[in-house]
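Newbie here. two chains, one complex. Structure please?
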Amino acid sequence: MDVMEAKKTRIFKFGANSADGDSDMKNLLGGKGANLAEMSAIGIPVPPGFTISTEVCTEYNELGEDALKELLKNDLRDAVASVEGIMGAKFGNDTDPLLLSVRSGARVSMPGMMDTVLNLGLNDVSVVGLAEKSGNERFAWDSYRRFIQMYGSVVLGLKPESKDDMDPFEEVIDHLKDKREITMDTDFSVQDLKDLVYDFKDIVKKGTGHDFPTDPWEQLWGSIIAVFNSWNGNRAMYYRAMHGYPADWGTAVNVQAMVFGNMGDTSGTGVCFTRDAGTGEDQFNGEYLINAQGEDVVSGVRTPQQITKIGSERWARLAKIDEAERAANYPSLEELMPEIYKELDSYQQQLEDHYRNMQDMEFTIQDGKLWILQTRNGKRTGAAMVKIAMDLLDDGMINEEEAMLLIEPYKLDELLHPVFDPKAIKKANIIAQGLPASPGAATGQIVFFAEDADRFRNTILIRMETSPEDLEGMNKARGILTARGGMTSHAAVVARGIGKCCISGAGALKIDYKNRKFTVDGKEFHEGEWLSLNGSTGNIIEGKVATKDPELSGEFAQLMKLSDKFSKVKVRTNADTPKEALLAREFGAEGIGLTRTEHMFFESGRINVMREMILAPHEKGRRRALRRLLPMQREDFEGIFEAMEGLPVTIRLLDPPLHEFVPHQLATQKELAEEMHISLMAVKNKVAELEEFNPMLGHRGCRLGNTYPEITEMQARAIIEAALNLKAKGITVKPEIMIPLVGTVAEFDAQEKVIRTTAEQIFKERKDTIEYLVGTMIEVPRAAVIAEKIAEKADFFSFGTNDLTQMTYGYSRDDADKFMPIYLKKGILNEDPFKVIDREGVGQLVKMATDKGREVKPKLKVGICGEHGGDPSSVEFFCSIGLNYVSCSPFRVPIARISSAQANIKFGC
Amino acid sequence: MDVMEAKKTRIFKFGANSADGDSDMKNLLGGKGANLAEMSAIGIPVPPGFTISTEVCTEYNELGEDALKELLKNDLRDAVASVEGIMGAKFGNDTDPLLLSVRSGARVSMPGMMDTVLNLGLNDVSVVGLAEKSGNERFAWDSYRRFIQMYGSVVLGLKPESKDDMDPFEEVIDHLKDKREITMDTDFSVQDLKDLVYDFKDIVKKGTGHDFPTDPWEQLWGSIIAVFNSWNGNRAMYYRAMHGYPADWGTAVNVQAMVFGNMGDTSGTGVCFTRDAGTGEDQFNGEYLINAQGEDVVSGVRTPQQITKIGSERWARLAKIDEAERAANYPSLEELMPEIYKELDSYQQQLEDHYRNMQDMEFTIQDGKLWILQTRNGKRTGAAMVKIAMDLLDDGMINEEEAMLLIEPYKLDELLHPVFDPKAIKKANIIAQGLPASPGAATGQIVFFAEDADRFRNTILIRMETSPEDLEGMNKARGILTARGGMTSHAAVVARGIGKCCISGAGALKIDYKNRKFTVDGKEFHEGEWLSLNGSTGNIIEGKVATKDPELSGEFAQLMKLSDKFSKVKVRTNADTPKEALLAREFGAEGIGLTRTEHMFFESGRINVMREMILAPHEKGRRRALRRLLPMQREDFEGIFEAMEGLPVTIRLLDPPLHEFVPHQLATQKELAEEMHISLMAVKNKVAELEEFNPMLGHRGCRLGNTYPEITEMQARAIIEAALNLKAKGITVKPEIMIPLVGTVAEFDAQEKVIRTTAEQIFKERKDTIEYLVGTMIEVPRAAVIAEKIAEKADFFSFGTNDLTQMTYGYSRDDADKFMPIYLKKGILNEDPFKVIDREGVGQLVKMATDKGREVKPKLKVGICGEHGGDPSSVEFFCSIGLNYVSCSPFRVPIARISSAQANIKFGC
């Protein structure tokens, strides 16, 4: 071994207010090791220990076990001695044993991918010492049997070979439970635990041919090697491959003293937050229990007590417990252990100052000594997130950029939609789960048909799937629940647009329209019964749950204003009505990126005119119906233009297959036939004729406009006339006419010609003109491939990333629920590409098309109006490749604005 | 005007065995002008005339009409004088008037896009001269009224403004017919024609404010200007845009003497071929009529006579006319005008030698003088095409490359499939038309259900669309006819694979399964009635039509052998059975590019095992059924491997959605439920569960293999075991396992792992190994976009251009018939992209993926196995971008081989 090798530091100690490393050394010490070193170095009392560096992992892989032991031997003894010194306990000692934990720690968190061993150092002798020291024989033996089980499994490899086999240790436990006629681990007596230890050791003997190692050093070596080995285990390799982490990173090993909060009345354990995670209020708070382990605090078996006196008093008021009883039975830590509290309070301040963010800490008091086990940035509600960021900014602790980056854009949803009352929701019974299709909380009485949506005061509309015919009912219902369809199904898209709570794809629901009921797990729910939906989580809850309406705080306004300072990429909205447009404008939308003209045709009084147009056997009949539709569309556009005065409004021409407009139920078909004075058979024939095998790839988009140019003509006329009418009133209008589903230049040319010819004619008729643009959706892969040719003609591009994702992947978004969940579970997909833009594939096409388009038209305006326009990660991507705007549903506008600002801060775009 | 301008040659004369231009001057003289010059220069007596060059067109566009007249005036007079000299007639003369034609002529043929004026030079005086000279007053006046009508429309613009308006001249004609109570133009008397001339001149006067020009020079100028103007007319501009021809090419104007074959008994007209267009035999042949115009020969009003004596005698034998009557009433030209015949015969030899190809000539004899009006390469049957090419090659008239390029690959179809007896088909009554989905002719009795396909000796199977369940019946029927579906529908693909005649998408058929009949245009056709199909044209014919089986000639073998000398890009076949594989091998396939494993599951005895697998609620049940399918699949593969001994065989893993395998009819569902001892409801539920909105974008391809890896495992095992079994028999097997519908690297990885793990296990079991490849289809656009990443893992790429076209365009091939016909008609698409590869879009993706793949793996094997593999233009493209092979259905293999050879000759690829 050469001299340099010998001198290299392989083990980095921490504890007692000092450390060999710090938080910048993540590559060498792993994330966990670096953080423990950092805390220790700034004077936080973390249980002492040491980190074996990631380089040693590499050395081990190269040199093997024996050489590694030789390499580390002296340093390891020295490091353990140092821990013993700080803890005042001895490793392997039979009266006051030092117990250790051994954990992996790569440079990034790989939760559950590698192995951990706890309670290391126990054997038949030291278990007795632990029992005496803790005064808790049960605890000592339970720890011991758990240690053997964990060690046996992790280090000695005694685990089931396949999913179908039993774990050998669990098999013994089950057997003993049967014998004792008990069901819970906690029902075991001390003798039972001792019997288990005996049996477990027997399993080890039989399984390995050797006795269970009683030498703590042998235990320690075994565990270290096991952690290193787990770096190349199947789970870890798979996880690395999935995330693209290289194998040569290696893992560090963290060895740390175990501390116990259950060693009597001078011990305890708790969790605390530097600020209120619910409201963001700057108030230290948390819960603890005396003589308890971490899991006792969260398990609910004992009622945890409050850390601060003020918190304790507030808790008692809510729980209706009087002050005397509170002080006697549920004293705060502040009252019970004032010195410890004072120490804890100083650490929480120190840690928040240090990490400049709200902290979530775990601590344990062992025998009157406070240990901080962990600190991390605390999870918080959307409201707390905004308040904390603005407070920290106002206090000068962070700058504006840092404040912006503290925002998780998705969480703003919580601020914009109703939420369940936190107390009411605790008792909720979740009966099933679906996709969180549109956020918010809703509670109401069940109905199964759109026309029943106003049958009760508050209704939940339940459908297999929704169709445009259900639009009115969806508007009236409190929430929408569908058994089929994904995140971009009709129900989901519409619900997000109108800010309505929606859960889609809840496959467990068996809907029985005829009997107006649904069944889930054998239980029936009938029309009129109460149901609650959490559109943010996908939870479907039995019964009525109280909801709270959102209130937008001053901090929210402050944040949105701040975002404007940074965001360069504009945010528009997808809006089909003046109401939606106005709402989005309030949320800061800078224009409309997508108006779906077809939604307007579904209103009653219009749908039958539309149907008349579709049923007409020739152009003349279509034109007759279109003449009746014209004034209606013109009025729609006038309303939207007025709402968006001065801002650009992109209007997409008719897009969906005509099949969506015709009635599919016999009764409605009969009605239509009577109204139109034609035979029922004629209606049925037309409906059948319009049916398609793959409607997504069928007769829709500009294929309609190119086969029936008179439709385009009517829509162009409605837009241009509406614009001129408003111009006459002194209102500035900037119409952008968008042709959907263009795949060839000729398709665009033919539609553009109809639009421009119509406009010119109107200009002549009115003796007035208006500026307008004619652009195209880029949503068919072919359009992206030939974008440079389309750009020669089109005034703007708008990516329809829903369709583009469908066609680029070949995934029907309505059918993907057949395989997508399995793909996500198996890691074949990391994300649902309909939710988060697929940068590698679809994103590459978006970038390619943008670049090609700008090659021929450098100032080409390029936006995106698919559902991805409201997803933060996707917005970041679109900003980074130079799009001019993103467009999303009104309630997503604030989220997109923040995302745009963050992208600017991160990438200068 | 500068001196250089004045010297430029603007008018190029031809006639009397000399010419100012030749056939290389197409850009300057246009195609027609250059060819007329060429013929004249080599001594062929074409009616004299002159060509005004394309440059003059440009000059006209720049300078305008007056300047043009000044520029051309002298040259034009000179050129007309030259024509007068040769013809011995005078332009505008009242006793022997020279009549002229004025035609456009761009450098490429643009049929019908520009204007023509005939019989120019007639007026009230010269019409009398013409009547006298021809001895046919009716002809003279009819020519005159036609001239006024044509000139009025083309030059003076007197035509209907919209489709709905009447042509003013036709209106007068209709009016006169009503008055005379006649229906045909030929029923007009001379006086009627004179009246029409009077009325027509009146229309001109009223429409233009001027008298009809009687000055022939004014007529000539007007016509020249009109032709130049038509270059920038709507039709021509549209045509240019569609084909990408630049506007600055301009058109030439050809002015030529008119000659007439109806000037008495020393006049005549005819068409002739230098070889037999039906058989290719080297025998001069053709038809003529004395005292007739061109249209008389083809109209059938008079029986045309044969040119040669030998032809005439053969004709008489077939028509059962005895020699005396033949010689008296139908003498050959050879007998009737031996001198003229001799002259014609020498020209036909000269022209074939000159153009080195079989010629189709038109001639006119005017007053004993022979004029050759036109020669062009003659249309011919597939058999004639092959024979002529090989004969010309054997005679040393052309070299091997030229012989190859004389082949139109598509025409080989005629040689490989039955055709209708030419005589029988003449009387055929076409009742409807569909898409020519699979070539050949078939005649048989109508059946409507696959299981009835052997109900009669010869059957025509008629379905709305076919499904894999119909496979057996399709095999038994003579021909297949579907009312729905496109060129790549199930029926079309299967039919081409088995070389069966098929017409798809015949939308006019209303099928009534219940009553076993179909209706078309109100007429009913019942089961058992006779019907005939022409799969090469799409014609559906009433009744029984005799067919002829194909016979492959020695020349065909010679041609195919020759093609091997050139073709570099290999041709494989798509084959699912040993029979297909052997057939394709006979046709020269160099391997299998696509075996669709799912087709094997539809055989009786298998389909229910497959259904059992699908209906199994868990993996265990699926594995049980798969164990039963394994030996069947293994046997299939053994058969195919044996048939293709020594050649590579690409096997695609299960691809279609499971929905295609389950029964959809109640009766079959009941049967299955009974057989599997489960409830009908369970079967119905599963069938419903498998239903998809857009099955093309649903749970299929490797998405099946990745959700049910046990299917992939079974298929991999069947392939590898089959290969090892044959290896043991000394048969060389080269399996290439192909994963369908891959869109992400992880999808490929997961499937590859299953395959390789299975193979390794078998190698261990058998203690033997075999070489095999694991590659992927590239058919999802995303796969093309990330091809460089997939190439790192895959051994080969095979483009599935059917699906790639579907997804790149967003066209469902089963639904595209809703808009594709309109798109083709409007010129929004030039070709059906499912038939001919779309080079601009889909082709760009194919090229991009190939290039990206070879960037990381320069030797990557890349092929294509979509339907385009049998289309000549597509094969040419695939060759040009460097693919290693194309794969097509067996009957297309010869076509692809020729196409590959031609691509090599043209592009060296």
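Moderator note: Chain B has 37 helices and 34 strands. Chain B touches chain A through 49 residues (CB under 8 Å). Thread marked as resolved.
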